[in-house]
Amino acid sequence: MTLIDDLNNAIGKAISWLTILLVMVIVVDVILRYTFSITSAASFEMEWHLFAAIFLLGAAFTLKEDKHVRVDVFYHRFSEKKQAWVNLIGTAVMLLPFCGVAFWESLSFVQSSFMLKETSPQPGGLPARWIIKSTIPIGFLLLGLQGISLIIKSIFTITYGRKADD
Q1: Average pLDDT, whole number, for the chain?
Q2: Cα separation, 132 vs 46, whole angstroms
Q3: pLDDT at res. 163
């Protein structure tokens, strides 16, 4: 549990720096486009590659920090034990199976991209498209691991009546 949390914490903090890089790429792209009428397929692709990496590799950190989107109509009013039950059931029934399927199905997607030495279909686009595609299984693996950590924490809360990190 601690090892998973530490891994996703380190990756989440490292990935957060990509947001600064993303903003810089967008600003340069906008300045070049509207000031000098210069556009680049590579810069446009770099924007969505960075966004994809931030989203996919940062999802587990978001779950760890309990900052993911949740419909809190009832959840926030529940006791810690009831919240733990919701987390346990939701993670075991929804999150882990989804992560498992997404991870498994994305492996062949990345493998075929790597084997084909796939590049951007756009002239002047980015090479080695398999690199960004590889963030899909990595992201779902990290999210699944964080789900396992959440299950362990939920079982601890249900069993002992307090959160594992208290």
Answers
A1: 93
A2: 10
A3: 84
Rounded to whole angstroms, how far apart are CA atoms 43 and 27?
A: 11
Residue linked to tokens 């810069």: 43
Q: Enter the tokens of residue 36.
A: 């000098």
69: its two tokens: 């989107």
Q: Are 89 and 154 in contact (CB under 8 A)?
A: no
C-beta neighbour count of 155 within 10 angstroms: 14
Residue ranges per structural domain of the chain: 2-160
> What is the number of alpha carbons within 13 Å of residue 56 lying toward its C-beta?
21
- Has residue 166 got a pLDDT over 60? no
Task: Please indicate, yes or no, whether the overall pTM of this predicted structure exceeds 0.70.
Answer: yes
Q: Is the dihedral of CA 110, 11, 9, 63 positive or negative?
A: negative
Name residues whose C-beta falls within 8 Å of residue 24's C-beta, 6 or more positions apart in sequence: none
Measured distance CA(166)–CA(163) in Å, rounded: 5
Question: How confident is the model over 60-78, as a mean pLDDT?
Answer: 87
- How many residues are there in the chain? 166
The pLDDT tens digits for 110-163 are 999 999 999 999 988 899 999 999 999 999 999 999 999 999 999 999 999 888
